[in-house]
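user: can you give me the structure for this one chain? tokens are fine.
assistant: on it. calling the predictor now.
[tool input]
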Amino acid sequence: MYNWVDEIPLSRPKKNIARDFSDCVLVAEVIKHFLPNIIDLHNYCNAHSITQKSNNWTTLNNKVLKKFNLILAPKDIKDAVEMVPETIERILFTIRYKIEQYN
């Protein structure tokens, strides 16, 4: 999973995957890299507050992930925002699989 993410040019360096991906911006960029027509990056802003991070994830869930027949559970979103270990990896693994299926 880490090698896959490392191959994608992102707007910020990755130091701590749980922290760096917790606001959903880099997740949106990963999807944009593979499926540029399915997502608008302007919908996602860099965030530090739990509220804005949650809003970003909810937007991704409702506007993009459902196109893959993937809906994150509220607990997954909460865990991603709160940087629970291995949550982002699990989400990215699922997104990678769905992107491969979509193409």
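assistant: here you go. Helices lie at 2-6, 17-20, 25-34, 50-63, 74-81, 87-102. The mean pLDDT is 95.
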